[in-house]
Amino acid sequence: MFSIRFVLGICLRKRWVLLLKSPCSLSDLGDTGVPGSAAGTETCLDEPNLPVPKFLHYSCGTVTGMHSLFFGGFENNLILLPVAKILGFGHYIESVNTKSGYYRIRPRADREPFLAFCDMSDGGGWTVIQRRSNGKENFNRKWDDYKLGFGEFQGKNDEYWLGNDHIHDLLTRGENSLKIDLMDWHGERRYAIYENFQLDNYRLWFGTYSGNAGDALSGGSNFEDQWSASHRGMQFTTSDKDHDRFLAGNCASENKGGWWFNRCHAANLNGRYYRRGKYSGSHDDGMVWSTWHGMWYSLKYSAMKIRAPFFVDSESGDGENSQGR
User: Fold this and answer.
1) What b/e readout covers 266-305, taking b as 16+ CB neighbours within 10 angstroms?
2) pTM of the model
3) Which of 38, 239, 273, 286 is the residue whose CA sits 20 to 30 A from 181?
4) What is the mean pLDDT of residues 137-143?
5) Per-residue DSSP letters for 143-206?
6) Which NCBIfam families does the record associate with it (predicted)?
7) Residues facing residue 127 across a β-bridge
């Protein structure tokens, strides 16, 4: 296993620390392209001219089980960490001066890295698994599309679904937090956070809710709604693979997107994108979070993002990638 020794106060006033796997030295790696670096286990750097990383080891916020915000990586022994301060017992490093953006991440060593948006708001370390912002991307897709992922991975407001396989790989590290950022057509923002977010064979599980958008994933406040619309324990359904509990039809076909449907839903952030809030029709098939605006209001913006629970949030709220424009 790759192991990094704790920085314990080194480079607290500098932006980067260079960490090498012992007993390797920079001479073993050849020309790294990092100016000012030198052989040794640690080298402090002031805003280096960074080379383009091959990929980000593991996920946003972790390095092989070591919980560290980590930007820039190399296949071999060299890693580059933005450093701010040591927290707790030194199990991870909280970062400042890090930027949200797209990075290649690799949650599992036996699979290829893939592109994802790392969101450094609210304490950092968030991997964005879903984003809706403009209606340009079609979310009414089949099982294989949701399995592998789809969408644009360029701009900070591009729409995409990361892919159920990738999401599952990210969640195999253990308990994770799910944060959902929402915005309506008046520009008001709300959020929901769920602890212990898990996918078991694409089946949805989650724990305690907090936030100001309401607990729509639990189906609402009364028992009847929860019986028919709670998403806890539901399998993922698409128009060509029906795993919901709706005996009279397929919830994904009616509601225009893959989701963890019950009979059918109290939340569906993969539904049809209406270019207005209130809508009407034969089905409540909009981009819905019922505990905020009800079933017949389609939201303008949503982002679903996950991270390991070893971070302390600053103020809850939308990050720089949550503009909804």
Assistant:
1) bbbbbbbbbeeeebeeeebbbbbbbbbbebebbbbbbbbb
2) 0.72
3) 239
4) 98
5) HHHHHH-EE--SSTT--EE--HHHHHHHHTTS--EEEEEEE-TTS-EEEEEESS-EEETTEEE-
6) GGGWT_bact (NF040941)
7) 118, 306
Matching residue, tokens 């927290």:
87
Per the model's pLDDT, the better-predicted residue between 37 and 130 turns out to be: 130
Give me the phi and psi of 181, to 5 degrees please: -95, 135
pLDDT at residue 291, rounded to an integer:
97
Burial pattern 152-161, b for ≥16 Cβ within 10 A else e, equals eeeebbbbbb
Three-point CA angle 50, 52, 56, nearest 5°: 105
Closest Cα to residue 75, out of 32, 17, 27?
32
pLDDT confidence tier of residue 201, bands split at 50, 70 and 90: confident
Q: For tokens 């399995």, what's the residue?
A: 147
Q: Please give the average per-residue pLDDT across 71-97, as a whole number.
A: 31
Which is it for strands 209-211 and 189-194: parallel, antiparallel or unpaired? Answer: antiparallel
Q: What is the Cα–Cα distance from 94 to 88, expressed in whole angstroms?
A: 10
Residue type at 8?
L
Q: Which residue has the tokens 């599992």?
A: 108
Instruction: Answer whether 135's CB lies under 8 Å from 273's CB.
Output: yes
Residue 27 buriedness (CB in 10 A; 0-12 / 13-18 / 19+): exposed
Copy the structure tokens of residue 299.
């939201």
SS3 for 231-251, per residue?
Answer: CCCCCCEECCECCCCCCCCCH
**Contact in structure between 302 and 184 (CB atoms under 8 Å):** no
SS3 255: helix
Distance CA 29, CA 12 (A): 26
Does residue 63 sit in helix, strand or coil?
Answer: strand
The answer to whether 61 touches 67, Cβ cutoff 8 Å, is yes
Q: Are 183 and 300 spatial neighbours (Cβ–Cβ below 8 Å)? A: yes
Residue whose entry in the numeric block shows the structure tokens 């159920």:
164
Is 216 in contact with 292 (CB distance < 8 Å)? yes
Closest CA to 7 of 114, 92, 121: 92
